[in-house]
Structures are given as structure tokens and as C-alpha cells.
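Retry 2 of 3 after timeout on previous attempt. Resubmitting C-alpha cells to design endpoint.
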């Protein structure tokens, strides 16, 4: 029997797994998709919220602030990019002054450091491209930006380093109570465990409802985005919010840690939990609302659009508790869930530890080394690396300057890339201006060769998302 099974390989599930690996025990992450970070965690704003927005006294506010405080150290340990660029909540209507003041006071009550209300002249010195209607703004210097999939993957890799196992393509079909724990049934087989942690994102209600008499509802809330080319990356330097409305923080404009500009999202409740379509109406709304706080947005430089789903509970509060003996729910983790993830991981791991009386793992290793681009090295170091492995000298993705050596390393890590999207999320091949138009065929060849599968078996994102049809022959150089 395992000690804990974590259902869901998003940022919260992987944060919980990493924190649990500090303890002695047998831990497994079960994920229905082909990789970690295939749901909400791969399609969000990448914002580390300072903590001024969540209502004071809520679990959401507490974990947001704690997670934000923990993020800089966590990113150093996991060797991932993080930038504390600060955020501005822009007011464009003078009559909204009481709402801006209320947001400021809520942030103070939550313990957010450094908050200030800045008037127009001060704002324009910080952000010349704010709209002509901008009157004042709440400034939070501790707000930050991060790459959400890099964080999730790094947490998973560090958890795996410390002994956590992963099952992919294994949707959970049933939970059955057994003496001393639970039987978790999946499409990949069943496993017995003392504790189940439900971190299944937009499907957390389905997992909860398999085992609990009090039913839960998760509403998938879709948000659509534009991602702009790096040419537009300096249009603003801070994360620019608008005053929050009934459906959240509205459309934001923010730089990314990789140098792009991100614009969005809108917010629309949808019925299907895999409905990540972009729509003409939704993107038009993003286009229109984005100009409220930021002028002259170069949306003609958009290189792609995408959407993601938030796991919204009507109560608009994180649901983290032992719902029935041995089943811990981690549900309703919508924004600011990414910011709160480090604190959520610690909280849930502590709950499991107390239930099972787990001992410390003396072999826990807290650091993880990222995949290093040869271009980040000195010329001498780069030449030495290429002499040792010529694959680091073969450029595959021109837009993002990604080499074959980096792609091969991404495939052979644990957990490693098994698809075009898996490579894309780890080393950014296909993430640039051409969106994989030039490098995708070569990346597919490398995947087929390194995984020892036919070229036709390579997928975009697992399952049946194959890109080629034809005779079922192994590509040249594929391992038997």
C-alpha cells in the first residue's frame, strides 16, 4: 500500500508532491493527461499576485500572501526564472476612488508590504503607455511574473528526484474505501493507498463526488489571451490590472519572463471542462478591454491566441480539507492559485504528515538544475559544451534559439517530454514567432528517435493528437 496518491499533475499537485517528498513514504502522482501541466497550470497569466485582492480573512488571501513570499526562494532552489516586476491596478474613473482605497486597505489588512496609491504624474513616469484616462493606481512592488509551466515541471522533476512516482494517461474512474485507506482505480490499473489527495483542477468536483456524500460543483471559467511577439515585450514593464469586477481582475497587460507581452483574459463560464477554444467574441472583448488601461497596444504583433480554464467554485474560496477520512480535497484553486501553490503544497503535505505520522526524509534534496541554454554560457564554456556533445551546437528552433542537445535532455528527464507540447513547455521550441512552423518537423524526428517510436506515433499533446498519417514505419535512426 502506498502512503499517498495525489490526483492531478498541475502546479498544486506537483507542489504537494514535492513537499511530501521531504518525508519518508511511498507517493504517487496520477494524471489523466500525458504529462504534468496540461490543464489550468499551462494556460494562465503567469502572475505572482502580491495578495491585495483576495478578501481579508479568507484561506485564499492567507495562502496567496504566504505563497508570494515563498516564491523567490523556491525559484532559486528550482533554477527557474522569476521577476518581481511589481503591479499596478489602474483606475480610469475618478468616481471609483473609494473602490481603489478599499483595495489598498484590504491589501494592508492582508499584510502586503509596500502598497501605495500613486497619482497620474507618478504613474506616467513608471509606465508612459498607460491610457489617457488613467487617474491613479494601486502599486504593489512585490507582485511578480513567472513561467507557470516551468514552475510546474520543475516541481515535478524535484519531486521525482526525491522518490515520487508518476502515472500518466491514467484518468481516475473510481475511489473505493478499503481497510486502512482507499483503492484508486484508473484506466492504467488500480493502486491502494492510505491517503488520497484530490488536486484535479476543474475535475476536482468529480473526484470529490466519487467518495463524498456532500456534493461539490466546479464551474469551468474560460479566459482567452493574446500572446505578442518579443518586439512588444517592453510596451509595459509592470503588470497592469484594471480595478476588479464581478468576474475577477479583468483584462491585464503584462510582460512575461521570456520577453513577450501577454494580454487577457476575459472571463466566461462554460459547460464543458475541456472547452479551451478561442472565440471571435472573446478575443474581441480582450482587444476592446485591454485599451482601457494601456494605450497603443501593438496587437498586430500577436503571434498566437489561447485560452485556459479556472476551477471556479460558486463560493469563490479555496476548499482544502479532509472531506472524509483519508481523502484530502484541494479544490476550487482558481486565481491566485499559481501564487498560492508553494503555500498550498506545504499546507496539504502537513495535513498528510499529521494523518500518517510521517518521518523526515534525511535524503531530501531541495534543488533542481534547469536545462541550460548554450547561449547563457560564456563563449569558452559554450565551446567546451559543444565539444563534449555536438548536439548543443545544432540549432533546431531559430525563433527561440533552442538546440538539439536541450531537446534531447528535455526528453530524457523524469518526467520527460513525450510530445511536441512537452518539448515546447520545457525548452520553448515552437514557442516563438513562427509557432513551430519551421522547427516542428525536426523536433518530431528527435522525439521519434529518442523514444524509439515511429514518426507517425509522435503527437502534439498525447492521446490521438497525431500530426502525420502514412505507413507505420520507424523513422530513420529510430531505436528498435
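Retry 2 succeeded. Sequence:
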Amino acid at each position: 500500500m502506498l502512503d499517498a496518491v495525489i490526483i492531478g499533475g498541475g502546479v498544486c499537485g506537483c507542489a504537494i508532491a514535492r513537499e511530501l517528498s521531504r518525508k519518508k513514504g511511498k507517493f504517487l502522482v496520477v494524471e489523466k493527461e500525458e504529462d504534468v501541466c496540461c490543464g489550468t497550470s499551462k494556460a494562465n497569466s503567469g502572475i505572482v499576485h502580491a495578495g491585495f485582492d483576495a478578501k481579508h480573512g479568507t484561506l485564499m488571501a492567507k495562502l496567496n500572501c504566504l505563497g508570494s513570499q515563498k516564491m523567490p526562494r523556491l525559484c532559486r532552489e528550482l533554477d527557474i526564472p522569476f521577476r518581481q516586476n511589481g503591479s499596478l491596478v489602474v483606475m480610469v474613473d475618478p468616481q471609483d476612488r473609494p473602490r481603489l482605497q478599499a483595495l489598498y486597505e484590504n491589501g494592508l489588512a492582508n499584510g502586503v508590504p509596500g502598497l501605495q496609491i500613486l497619482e497620474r504624474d507618478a504613474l506616467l513616469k513608471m509606465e508612459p503607455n498607460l491610457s489617457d484616462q488613467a487617474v491613479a493606481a494601486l502599486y504593489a512592488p512585490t507582485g511578480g511574473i513567472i513561467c507557470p509551466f516551468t514552475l510546474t515541471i520543475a516541481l515535478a522533476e524535484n519531486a521525482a528526484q526525491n522518490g515520487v512516482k508518476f502515472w500518466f494517461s491514467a484518468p481516475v474512474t473510481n475511489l473505493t474505501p478499503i481497510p486502512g485507506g482507499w483503492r484508486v482505480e484508473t484506466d492504467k490499473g488500480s493502486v491502494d493507498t492510505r491517503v488520497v489527495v484530490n488536486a484535479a483542477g476543474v475535475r476536482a468536483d468529480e473526484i470529490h463526488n466519487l467518495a463524498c456524500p456532500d456534493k461539490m460543483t466546479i464551474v469551468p471559467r474560460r479566459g482567452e489571451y493574446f500572446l505578442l511577439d518579443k518586439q512588444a515585450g517592453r510596451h509595459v514593464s509592470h503588470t497592469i490590472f484594471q480595478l476588479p469586477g464581478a468576474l475577477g481582475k479583468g483584462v491585464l497587460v503584462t510582460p512575461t519572463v521570456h520577453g513577450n507581452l501577454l494580454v487577457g483574459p476575459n472571463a466566461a463560464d462554460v459547460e464543458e471542462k475541456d472547452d479551451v477554444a478561442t472565440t471571435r467574441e472573446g478575443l474581441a472583448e480582450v482587444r476592446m478591454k485591454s485599451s482601457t488601461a494601456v494605450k497603443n497596444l501593438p496587437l498586430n504583433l500577436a503571434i498566437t491566441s489561447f485560452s485556459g480554464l479556472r476551477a471556479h467554485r460558486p463560493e469563490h474560496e479555496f476548499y482544502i480539507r479532509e472531506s472524509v477520512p483519508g481523502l484530502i480535497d484541494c479544490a476550487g484553486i482558481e486565481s491566485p492559485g499559481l501564487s498560492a501553490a508553494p503555500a498550498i503544497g506545504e499546507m496539504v503535505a502537513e495535513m498528510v504528515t499529521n494523518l500518517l505520522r510521517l518521518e523526515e526524509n534525511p535524503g531530501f534534496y531541495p534543488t533542481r538544475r534547469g536545462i541550460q541554454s548554450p547561449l547563457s554560457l560564456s563563449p569558452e564554456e559554450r565551446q567546451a559544451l559543444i565539444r563534449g556533445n555536438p548536439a548543443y551546437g545544432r540549432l533546431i528552433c531559430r525563433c527561440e534559439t533552442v538546440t538539439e542537445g536541450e531537446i534531447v535532455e528535455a526528453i530524457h528527464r523524469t518526467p520527460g517530454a513525450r510530445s511536441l507540447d512537452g518539448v515546447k513547455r520545457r525548452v520553448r521550441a515552437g514557442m516563438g514567432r513562427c509557432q513551430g512552423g519551421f522547427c516542428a518537423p525536426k523536433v518530431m524526428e528527435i522525439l521519434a528517435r529518442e523514444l524509439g517510436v515511429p514518426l507517425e506515433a509522435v503527437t502534439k499533446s498525447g492521446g490521438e493528437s497525431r500530426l502525420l498519417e502514412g505507413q507505420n514505419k520507424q523513422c530513420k535512426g529510430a531505436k528498435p
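Attempt log closed. The chain has a mean pLDDT of 95.
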